[in-house]
Amino acid sequence: MELQERKVDRHLIITASGRLDASWSEFFQEHLLQRIRAGEHHIILDAAALSFLSSMGIRALMAVYKELRAIGGTFLIAKSTSMVSETLRKSGLGQWLSDAPLPEVDPARKHPGVAPVAPSLEHFPGDVDSGLRLEIVDAWRPWQPVDRQRSRELSFPRDGFGLGIGGAGASYEAARNYLGEFVAVHGHVAVQPPDERGRPDCLLSEGEFVPSLHCAQALFCRGAPGHLLRFRAADDHPCYTVSALLEEMFTIAATTTIGFIAAGEIEGLVGAALIASPGRLHEQTEVGYPQIKEWLIFSGERVFAREQAVIVGVARKIPEHSGSEENSPVASSSSLMATGRRSIRSHMHAAVLPFQMLPNGPIASMAMAARLFGGASPRAVLHLVNDDRPGDGLGESALFQGACWFGAIVEGGDLL
Predict the structure, then answer these.
(1) What is the DSSP string of 365-391?
(2) Closest Cα partner for 396 from 386, 407, 404?
(3) Distance between CA atoms of residues 97 and 76, nearest Å
(4) Which residue in 50, 57, 119, 403 has the fewest CB atoms around it within 10 Å?
(5) What is the rounded average pLDDT of the residues 66-81?
(6) What is the largest CA-CA distance in the chain?
């Protein structure tokens, strides 16, 4: 089988020559799914030279169709031979067939310099005036003992999102040895146990049950994000770093403090995770080098490429020459708790999940959370860092494509 492609406006036209049977169905399916993942969501199969279609070929076509339907895309088969058309109609799939002529490039656009370029960013404003209310738990500063009196049991209902360090248990004493990074998104909570070999656990809001954790640190935003920013890779942006996305969010929101959720396909994450609970710290504990290796692991390389990240964070713009941010929960450690460009301070955690395409257009953050956390279990929860060491630093985390839901923090942001 031979596949050739051409792009006409929003449509990707794929010409297939040969037999779509058991020998070629896997190749065909994988190629088209890769093109969908790269952002081609409106596909027309030119089947004029497709000489044979078997049941395995139909299965491959069905996989492509289902992927496109799930994200609001389109799939059609044009110029098919009588054999292919008859096979599809008798299989109950005649709705894929199109008698319309294939779209053609407008002659006025054929010369260089005027071809349309698909935008890599789309902004969908919502209730931009509602704002977010921030709750803060600040009972731990690395690497001091946890202040038991300032720790809190925090609930995570569906009307908010947040991150922090906490553990599940009937009381703080029951949870103190299990404090690890967590991400909470609209009632879905992923918690990384402080164990180098531990897999994240999930607490999901169902019925009257509302997840809660005993928290040593937490930043929890209540309310609905007022903005949605969709992004995807383009020639001028092969991927988006988290700081580039934050710059876009600050520009759109026109504020100095935001809370956000980002979901997308990972180019690479740079992060750290606890492997021992901070609840074990006491006044005599030394956490310098090499003791730090008993408490913390660092990614060491950009990790989890092509998986899905759900990143939750709080960020604020820092005025030039300002030093006041060093005492805030967003920047409680200059090496661990802060990341991004020098003009932005942020605290971000990422839950890693198997990749799923997000539907096109203005999808709600609550629908996204149900879609992603309702499937396979998370693979990791990381605290994202910016490794800006000269020469051998890994840089910062980046995504190929995805969506950001964000809004201005209107209550509690002054504590940052």
Answers:
(1) HHHHHHHHHTSSPP-EEEEE--B--TT
(2) 386
(3) 6
(4) 119
(5) 92
(6) 81
Domains and CATH numbers, the chain: 2-102 (3.30.750.24), 124-415 (no CATH)
Q: Which residues of 271-282 are buried (b: 16+ CB within 10 A; e: fewer)?
A: bbbbbbbbbebe
Query: What are 29-73's pLDDT values in tens digits?
Result: 999 998 898 888 999 999 999 999 999 999 999 999 999 998 889
Average pLDDT over residues 73-92: 93
pTM: 0.83
Nearest C-alpha neighbor of 141 from the set 150, 132, 133:
150
Encoding tokens for residue 133? 């209310």
Asked whether 376 and 354 are in contact (CB, 8 A), the reply is: yes
How far is it, in rounded angstroms, from Cα 124 to Cα 104? 30
- Supply 341's token pair: 């460009």
Give how far Cα 400 sits from Cα of 263, 266, 346, 350, 368, Å: 10, 6, 20, 15, 17
User: What is the model's pLDDT at position 140?
Assistant: 95
In whole angstroms, give the CA distance from residue 38 to residue 5. 14
Provide the 8-state DSSP code for 1. Answer: -
